[in-house]
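Z., the sequence and structure:
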Amino acid sequence: MLRFDKETEQRVFRVAEARAQGKPQQDGIDELISQIMDLHPEFDELWPEREGALIAQPVNGQMVHPFVHVVLHGIIAGQLNNAHPEFVKDTQLRLMASGLDEHESLHTIMSVYGDLYFRGVRQEGEFDEWEYYTRLSQIIVEDIGEQAAES
């Protein structure tokens, strides 16, 4: 399981280095991180810098925090693979049936999860799974397209 902690940070950098050297990954979590990195080659030049991957910065015209992005991908992948909570998989299937591809659907779910997770951390509260369910159930694909057009 990926977390926003120092151990995961070191693991991500170790995987990035092994990946850059063409070395195989050691376990399933490392392989997952490598697969996520494959989805985001725009981050490749940031991993060797380390500090650059740990702060939000412009990437392809958007402010992105590469480490947070990879961890969020991993968290949502875990939810989907374990079908827990179930509504996450249901949401992904609904989004894909409405026209989003798999990666876009992941990013949509990640944005909701990340918002709730970091709000909870800032308020020293717990993650609100009911709000997660509610917000995911209210996503409409047309709204996503409109938001993208506005950016």
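DSSP finds seven helices and two strands in the chain. Residues 102-122 form the longest helix (21 residues).

Let me know what you think.
H.
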